[in-house]
Write a structure and sequence with these properties.
mainly alpha, Non-ribosomal Peptide Synthetase Peptidyl Carrier Protein, Chain A, two-stranded antiparallel ribbon
């Protein structure tokens, strides 16, 4: 069983998947920063200074008026943090769009390589002498002796 596991890990697909997961985690951090630091302020400015990350509704408990989401959570109140959900949806849409663009680009490169491969004519192997020609050469060589 240990040898099977070693074979499984040694396969290229597993390593490719591991690299993809690590890069995906780093990419998620970049997109999170993009959304939180660049896109949210622009959306907030367009909507009159609205900060999505602090949008919530108090379900139960007492929260000071105008308190941040973090302060509301720390007070022990049950909050419905719909602003955080909106941010998660925006993050997802951006990540999905970028992944779509990457897959689309990779597919175009693969299609171009495949078309180029199909367009290149295969070089014909040099034709050797036929059986009849070989027999004729052997006959002539024997006749000379």
């Amino acid at each position: 069983m240990l040898n099977e596991f070693k074979d499984f890990i040694a396969k290229g697909n597993v390593m490719d998947m591991a690299v993809g997961i690590i890069i995906g985690a780093a990419f998620t951090a970049i997109v999170g920063s993009l959304v939180a630091d660049l896109i949210n302020p622009i959306i907030g400015l367009a909507l009159g200074g609205v900060d999505f990350s602090n949008m919530y509704a108090v379900l139960s408990g007492a929260v000071a008026e105008g308190a941040s989401l973090e302060a509301a959570r720390e007070s022990g109140a049950a909050v419905f943090a719909y602003g955080s959900f909106i941010m998660a949806v925006i993050n997802f849409l951006i990540i999905a769009f970028v992944v779509f663009m990457l897959v689309r680009s990779v597919n175009k490169v693969k299609d171009a390589a495949k078309a180029e491969e199909e367009a290149a004519p295969e070089e014909a192997a040099p034709a050797g002498p036929t059986e009849l020609e070989l027999l004729a050469e052997i006959r002539d060589a024997l006749a000379k002796k």
